[in-house]
Amino acid sequence: MKKSIIITVIVALISTMGMNAQKQMDQFEIQVDGLGCPFCAYGLEKKFKEFKGIKEVKIDIETGDFSFAYPSEKSLSLNDVVTQVEKAGYTPITTKITRANGKVESSGGKAESTKMDIAQLTNKSVFVAGNCGMCEARILKAAKSISGVSNASWNQDTKMLEVGFDASQTSVSAIEKAIATAGHDTKGHKAAKDTYNDLPGCCKYERLEQ
């Protein structure tokens, strides 16, 4: 009888410990720009699996919603998440963490547009070669890395980049050069051969003649 009671208590303790362990998970929600295909989602998930202990990974390609759970004791920060998304080749728009203790942390990510008077903006359309969502994320990241760029969007079908910038701080040529350095041809600047060759297979667009 004693033996039976002891076993029951041990099982109950293990069950309780398991439930507590499950509760001690932080929940992460990230809006990611540039997820255009299953390969993109796979690349993002693979990059985040470098964080040992990640669970419940969910990625919606159409909306860009990316969520997962991670052990709270590891204290994964907003900055860690934003940096990892960028390492995967995408642009984080918003990031939200709901800690196991109920505390909520959020940020607009590094993709927030620079605030400036609309009247000061110069808007241009630039042809940029590319194929997929990964290309889009790479192109936008390069364009937005230039000081003075307020907003940018790239259309996969037309290959046109719509960009708004402060002409006193930068120029179309400077933006095109940054994009070419990231691996994408524009009519003004062509990507280096080695940089182009290093692109993922789905990003190997037809090179522009210059």
Provide a descriptive summary of the structure in words.
It is a single chain. Helices cover 33% and strands 26% of the residues. The strands form 2 sheets. It has a 5-stranded antiparallel sheet with strand order 2-3-1-4-5. Strands 6-8-7 form a 3-stranded antiparallel sheet, with helices on one face. The longest helix has 22 residues. The radius of gyration is 22 Å and the shape is globular.
Brief synopsis:
With 210 residues, the protein is α+β, with helices and mostly antiparallel strands. The protein has two domains: 24-107, Alpha-Beta Plaits; 118-203, Alpha-Beta Plaits (2-Layer Sandwich), CATH 3.30.70.100.
Distance between the termini: 87 Å
Please tell me the CATH architecture of the largest domain by its name: 2-Layer Sandwich
Topology-level CATH name of the largest domain = Alpha-Beta Plaits
Strand runs, count: 8
